[in-house]
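testing teh design pipeline on a random one, pls ignore if ur not involved
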């Protein structure tokens, strides 16, 4: 299992567009055969910061996600163009 979070900060003026891009990206990503969990969140008290929790069956499923047309459209050509900051953390399950 591959799990990680991605934290992204955007400008306030892009909040609505970011929400639309995230909804579309989440919907498409959840349909991928190797996607276990894909949940974007807004950070309470920080409305322009988003945290996405992602989990994939294995590295191949993650690679397929990153190579997908919807990832290119909604993340690379969409969200990444609006980013002000981005950080990710790889996670290891305790149980």
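output:
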């Amino acid at each position: 299992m591959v799990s990680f979070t991605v934290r992204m900060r955007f400008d306030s003026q892009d909040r609505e567009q970011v929400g639309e891009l995230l909804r579309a990206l989440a919907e498409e990503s959840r349909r991928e055969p190797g996607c276990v969990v894909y949940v974007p969140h807004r950070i309470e008290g920080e409305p322009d910061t988003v945290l996405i929790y992602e989990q994939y069956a294995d590295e191949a499923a993650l690679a397929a996600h990153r190579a997908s047309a919807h990832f290119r459209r909604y993340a690379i050509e969409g969200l990444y163009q609006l980013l002000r900051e981005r950080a990710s953390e790889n996670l290891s399950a305790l149980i």
